[in-house]
Amino acid sequence: MSMSDMGNANSQVRSGEPLYEVRNLTKVFATRSSAIGGKPLIVRAVNDVTFDIKHGEVLGLVGESGCGKTTTGRLLIRLLDPTSGSIVYGGQDIAAISPRQMRALRKDMQIIFQDPFSSLNPRMTCMDIIAEPLILHTKMSRVERREKAYELLRYVGLPREYALRFPHEFSGGQRQRIGIARALSIDPKFIVCDEPVSALDVSVQSQVLNLIQKLRQDRQLTLLFIAHGLNVVKYISDRVGVMYLGSLLELADSDAIYAKPLHPYTQSLISAIPDVDGMGGRGRALLQGEIPSPTNMPSGCPFHTRCSRKQELCESEKPKLREVEAGHSVACHLV
Ligand code: SF4
What we know:
The chain has about 325 residues and is of the alpha/beta class. The protein has one domain: Rossmann fold (3-Layer(aba) Sandwich). The chain is built from 11 helices and 12 strands. The strands form 2 sheets. It has an 8-stranded mixed β-sheet with strand order 6-7-8-3-9-10-12-11, with helices on both faces. The protein has a 4-stranded antiparallel β-sheet with strand order 2-1-4-5, covered by helices on one side. The longest helix is centred in the middle third of the chain and has 18 residues. The chain is globular and about 65 Å long. It binds iron/sulfur cluster. The site of iron/sulfur cluster has 13 residues, from loops.
């Protein structure tokens, strides 16, 4: 099957309808206390998060380290089990199904990891890495798997003769291309891109972003694109969600987030970008203070310890994410 045929495989997507409907998703981890004999510390990594991902869209998810964006991505493909809430994928709540039922859906969902240096098995050749999901999820013969691996290598821009090389023989950008080829091998419908360029040199970041943009267009994939900063997701996302301490604070079309950020935290993130469409840093509050420990979450609004517009209510009552303009939702008492 050619790459164009593979692209057509997903051409029946119902653009605009939700592929995912995530409701009140929560993930709690218990970590060991630093004090001897102390109680386990509770981390609410994802805290009552609700959003949809439409068929064929790229949803960007941004926030500082520890905000819950990576955990959210892993919950969506059930690499982690949720503590509560629902994850409706294609009409089925995958938060509630058995591991066996989940195995059948697994080939629809793939992940591209942040670190291309540790995410590839160092003892496997490039070809075996790309073909491994085909062994797990298809009945392809060895020859068919090899042909498919060559085809994917070509698609991600790597020469055929690299097929028998090992991961240590590639640069970071090339390894990430191998990771992308592997993710594409079983023709998924949905891919979590977990900070796929943050470990790469700036000079190769745009090449990998271009490749992700291309595969999205060729194959009409639905992507969750996780990034630390808003500058990366602006390039690639249709909509953007902003997370902070496990909560979703703002969700809007990409253009609206940059042109008219409504949440004080998003405004601070935009201000931190040197120049976004000429708006960077213009009169907006810069982010103050440190992010609180996720083991000691603030009461009320999770952002109140750093917010210059904080009111009394903010310390006691957590604002709900609500739609304030068409397609633009914000969790702030003042908006
Ligand atoms: Fe700031 Fe209050 Fe809005 Fe939270 S709810 S962002 S503390 S104004």
